[in-house]
Design goal:
It is built from eleven helices and twelve strands. With 294 residues, it is of the alpha/beta class. It has a single domain, classed as 2-enoyl-CoA Hydratase, Chain A, domain 1, CATH 3.90.226.10. The chain has a seven-stranded mixed beta sheet, sandwiched between helices. It has a three-stranded mixed beta sheet with strand order 4-6-9. The longest helix is centred in the middle third of the chain and has 26 residues. The protein is globular and about 70 Å long.
Length: 294
């Protein structure tokens, strides 16, 4: 008989599976966790793992996608969202800590967004890859270019500023504009289709809510989240209270349920600690598998 060696990694991954199963019971949903940047290739990995999860006996109707990300490509969020919807009728997102940029866009594709007072989303500022693997916010370039162009048109630009203005690559600027427009259009489409699907009457006057009203609300939210001047920084976190107050966006507070909050905190803490110890920068996890990607 072959004896299977029990390692510390197996023990930790076993406990991670136990902890995520507790969250599944709390939210009555299958769970998939992704931690890492939203870049090309992770959509393939998520596809493979979600297909395996959806084949399991006792599959639930709802998926709870636990997300932690600094952001990435809006294009990749489209493929991830389409993949999730192929296998689950209801998709909720839970943000235990942060989901920035493309992560915010992806969260807006959910039927519901679960946060607590510590969780934050971010402005939907498209990220542009740089040599070395770093990302820079594209809208910062567009804002700077537009400011300098306005100065030039008004005759108030300095020689040094004119050199900076002329140094901007028009092709790159166009790609930044395309990325910005895609971010807005995805968010507007998904809010109307999923987040606002049960919004049938207005809160105060109880008037019937039309598709035009839903589209207008979605457009307002997209414009505000895309306004870097409003938030001052790409990296600033927008907490649950500000999302509700300033964007009039419905957020479900998992912190109000002590059992759910404890389950999320225990799981997220163990996962974060294990990833740090193993030097894993990107991970997909379900009750069935732990897959490091970077």
């Amino acid at each position: 008989m072959t004896t299977r060696i029990l390692t510390s990694n197996r023990i930790v991954q076993f406990h991670l599976s136990m902890e995520i199963e507790k969250i599944e019971k709390e939210f009555d949903a299958d769970c998939l966790t992704y931690v890492g940047p939203i870049v090309s290739g992770i959509d393939d990995s998520i596809r493979d793992i979600i297909e395996d999860l959806a084949k399991q006996e006792g599959k639930r109707n709802k998926l709870l996608f636990i997300l932690e990300t600094p952001g990435g490509y809006a294009e990749t969020t489209r493929r991830i969202s389409d993949t999730l919807r192929q296998h689950y009728n209801v998709v909720d997102f839970l943000i235990p800590s942060y989901a920035m940029s493309a992560g915010t866009i992806l969260a807006m594709s959910g039927d519901a967004i679960h946060m607590d007072y510590y969780s934050v989303l971010g402005p939907i500022d498209p990220q542009i890859p740089q040599p070395g693997g770093n990302f820079i916010p594209a809208l910062g370039y567009l804002v700077r270019y537009e400011d300098l162009l306005k100065k030039a048109n008004n005759g108030g630009i300095s020689t040094a500023e004119m050199k900076i203005l002329l140094s901007f690559d028009q092709g790159e600027l166009y790609s930044y504009e395309q990325a910005r427009d895609l971010s807005r259009s995805l968010l507007e489409e998904w809010l109307v289709k999923y987040k606002f699907k049960d919004w049938t009457v207005t809160e105060t006057k109880k008037r019937p809510v039309t598709i035009a009203m839903k589209k207008q609300r979605a457009k307002q939210i997209a414009e505000k989240l895309n306004d870097v001047r409003l938030w001052n920084s790409h990296g600033i976190g927008i907490n649950m209270d500000r999302l509700r107050r300033e964007l009039n966006l419905k957020i479900d507070d998992f912190g109000l349920n002590a059992t759910s909050s404890e389950a999320v905190r225990r799981y997220h803490g163990l996962l974060s600690d294990y990833m740090t110890r193993m030097s894993h920068k990107s991970v997909i996890h379900t009750r069935l598998t732990y897959e490091p990607l970077m």
